[in-house]
Amino acid sequence: MELNNVQQCMVQTTETISLYRVHASVTEFDKRETFLLSVEKRKKRETFLEENPCPNPNPIPNSAETATMASLPWDIIVNILSRLSVKDLLRYRCVSKPLCSLIDGPDFIKMHLNHSMETNSHLSLIRADLELRSVDLDNLDSAVLLNPPVNEGLGKDIVGHCHGLLLVTNRDGDTAIWNPATRKHRKVPISDLKENPGKFEIGVVGFGYDPVNDDYKFLRMIHYYGRDISSFHSEVKVYSLKTNTWKRVADFPYNVMHCANGVLVGNSWHWMLGIQYQYSSAFEIVVAFDLVAESYRKIPLPDKKKNKGQSYLTTMRELGEWLCLVTHHKVGEMVDHVDIFVMKEYGVKESWTKLFSVAPSDVAGSFEFAMPLAYLRSVHQVLFDLSGDKLMVYDLKRKRVVSVKEISGPQCDLSLVYVRSLLGVGGSDENNSEKKAGENADKSKKQKQQPSRKKK
Amino acid sequence: MSSSSTTTTTTRLLMLKASDGVTFEVEEAVATKLGAINNMVEEEGSEDLICLPNVNGKFLGMVLEWCKKHANNNTNSDKGNDEVNKWWDKEFVMDLDQNTLYHLLMAADYLSGTELVDLLTEKVASMIRGKKVEEIRETFKIKSDFLPGQEEEIRKKNSWAFE
Question: Considering the entire predicted model, what is its pTM?
Answer without folding.
Answer: 0.81
